[in-house]
Amino acid sequence: RCSHMFVAALFLYRYVPREKDVREFTTKVWTGEVEIGDFVPPVQAALSSPQDGRSTDLLPRMRTLQRKIQVMHSKARPKRIKFLVVPGSKFRYLKRKNNSSSDQYDVGELHFLVKQEAKGDLRKDARVQNLNVVINRLFASSATNARDHRLHLTTFAVTCLSEDCGILEWVPNTDSMRNSLSKSYNPLASPYCLRRRGKRSADFTDPDLRQSFEKSQNIFIKGGDLSKATESFEKLCLSNYPPVFYWWFVQQFPDPYSWYEARSRYTLSVAVWSAVGHIIGLGDRHSENLLMDTATGACVHVDFDCIFDKGLSLPRPEVVPFRLTPNMLDAMGPVGADGMFASSLKSAMSILRDNMDILLSVLEPFLNDPIIDWRRIKSSQRAINKDCSEAKRSIKVIEERLLGVYNLRNPNYKKVQRIDKIEDDGEDMMHMLPLSVEGQVQKMITEAVSHENLVQLYVGWMPWI
Predict the structure, then answer these.
(1) Phi-psi map region of 98: left, alpha, beta (phi>0 left; psi -120 to 50 alpha)
(2) On the chain, which terminus has fewer CB atoms closer than 10 Å, C or N?
(3) CA angle 219, 220, 222 (to 5 degrees)
């Protein structure tokens, strides 16, 4: 009986509308033998064991599926489905009265994304969410966090139907950071000023912008002069497309108290995601994989396929520990990364380092899982041996980071012969010796905001925003 729901979900993700520009289609009414409300909704609250002994009857139950299915704009064209929900305590009453189709007790909606990964593996996303739940419990039980900060990772449920498809819980009230930036504008600038609107810098189709960045990058990639490449990047991109993300918070939260709270939540969330992302080697942090909560201002990360430093093996390696671009700094206020962000990052790293044994015990089975193919290589004895060595290497890298070692090495320096390199004997020692929490945090921030690193990233990462 439950297989009917499974088959229906598989049909949704495989269905491709004939016309490419279709944004919505209508599906049939649910006719399964089991009512939709009898299924546990695949949300994080239902799939995680409650810490306070709450009954599952308090969870909302799905009353009916809305027949109109939305097709999203992204390349994979996932489908967004919507359920109307009733309180769990009311559903049994409605079922006994044979009145489960009534909308009298509707309390809201649940949204999900039915998605197929062309190259990724959604089981990685599910495992990372399990890790994030553990980390949230560590934050919640930490005296440091309770006293100084409100560190928390926004999690969502990932229900895998196969290795490349599944159902993802939709995080409500969110929009991509790129879209949020495109809606921002500086009201103090002249209406005719090109630097007034964020839409200009967030427009990836702008040929002048892309050519300016690629021209700057090629000075290093093809010419080996990183200093001149950085100067060109600052002149052609950063100066012509100044940050305006600060104004998104002013416009989204006009009340002074709500504005301050939203900016604080944003800074705290960016800090905690930066700490966790660096530890597990989270890559592919382009502006579409960072979401903004339009109700609270918090930052939410999605798409966890590129983990364990997989980003360093890309054609354009992701050589920064986390995303901390000019617009992200602009939203933090005049002090940028030196105020609440640095102190929150320090608190998060302290908690993670203090609980190293717990995190490694969670990550080791994760890495040694024979079902998940981390490198997407063909199944052979040679591939299995390579996977084992990669798992051991990843565990060692994570353990070093939890001890304070900054071991993120830039592969470009082996591929490109620099003609402007300044010898620094202390740089190699930095990658070998453990640092204090303060030293590690300062090193991470320095590398993340470095224009020398930003100019080396893939153009689709949009490092100028």
Answers:
(1) left
(2) N
(3) 75
| Strand bridging mode 158-162 / 108-116 | unpaired
Q: Which residue has the higher pLDDT, 48 or 179?
A: 179
Q: For residue 380, what are the contacts with CB-CB under 8 A and spacing of at least 6?
A: none
DSSP letter assigned to residue 203: -
Please give the order of strands across the beta sheet that includes 290-293: 174-176, 290-293, 299-301
Q: Taking the model in full, what pTM does it have? A: 0.87
Helix (H, G, I), strand (E, B) or coil at 48: coil
What tokens were used for 242? 């100044």
Neighbours of 361 (CB within 10 A): 11
- Radius of gyration from C-alpha coordinates of the chain: 24
Query: Around Cβ 414, how many Cβ atoms within 10 Å?
Result: 8
pLDDT in tens, 208-241: 999 999 999 999 999 999 999 999 999 999 999 9
Q: What share of the chain is helix, strand, coil (3-state, %, to 5)?
A: 45, 10, 40
Q: Which residues fall within 8 angstroms of residue 169, CB to CB, at 6 or more apart?
A: 42, 43, 44, 110, 112, 113, 156, 157, 158
CA dist., res. 208 & res. 213, Å (int)? 9
CB 357, CB 399: distance < 8 Å? no
How many Cβ atoms from other residues are within 10 Å of residue 417's Cβ?
A: 8
Beta carbons of 103 and 85 less than 8 angstroms apart: no
* Per-residue pLDDT reduced to its tens digit, 278-316: 999 999 999 999 999 999 999 999 999 899 999 999 999
State whether residue 257 is helix, strand or coil. Answer: helix
- Helices 356-367 & 122-141, crossing angle to 10 degrees? 170
Q: Long-range contact list for 117-121, CB < 8 A, 24+ apart?
A: 117/76, 117/164, 117/165, 117/305, 118/75, 118/76, 118/164, 119/305, 119/376, 120/164, 120/303, 120/305, 121/163, 121/164, 121/305, 121/372, 121/373, 121/376
Q: What length does the chain have?
A: 465
Residues in contact with 20: Cβ distance below 8 Å, sequence separation at least 6, in sequence order? none
Strand partners for 112 = 81, 169
Q: Give the DSSP per-residue string, 404-438.
A: T------THHHHS--SSPPP-HHHHHHTTS---HH
CA 458 to chain centre: 17
Alpha carbon dihedral 416, 422, 425, 426, in 10-degree steps, equals -100
